[in-house]
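Quick check before the chapter quiz. The format below is the same one you will see on the exam, so make sure you can read both the input and the output lines.
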Amino acid sequence: MNTATAADQPATPDAARASSLKLHVSLDVKNIEESIRFYSTLFDMKPTKLRAGYAKFDADFPAVNLALQERDHCCLQGLSHMGIRVPSLEQVAATKARLQTAGYKTEDEMGSKCCSALQDKVWVEDPSGYRWEVYIFRGDIDAESHGAKGEIASKCSCA
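Here is the expected output.
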């Protein structure tokens, strides 16, 4: 007997896919339209999410969640950050504990409204300064919201 309720079911196709591990890469781009054309061709698919100045490709092959953000020249850095989407908050917490035990500084960002999605995440920097997030996808949101972020998460913003 299936005891799952409607509340247990993913609300969107993104939420349904969020139950698997997938590499996340976020790129700052000069021109969103040209970038959409390139990555649509490369992945042989259309973006799974489009917003003004933003596109996401949630591809199964290759297994990647690629986010593109159009940035002005002052903010254009190429690679914004990388991440790993995990299926549960317990896995976010376990990754945080593992990183902290190894001596790495982490920052929590729970209830984050990022990449047109609601997420719970932990941030960490690798020894070269590359920013990584480990996160759980909670659902789509209509608009980007930029709230206060920690030191690691906010490194790419320009004032």
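If your answer matched, good. The helical segments are 13-17, 32-43, 89-101.
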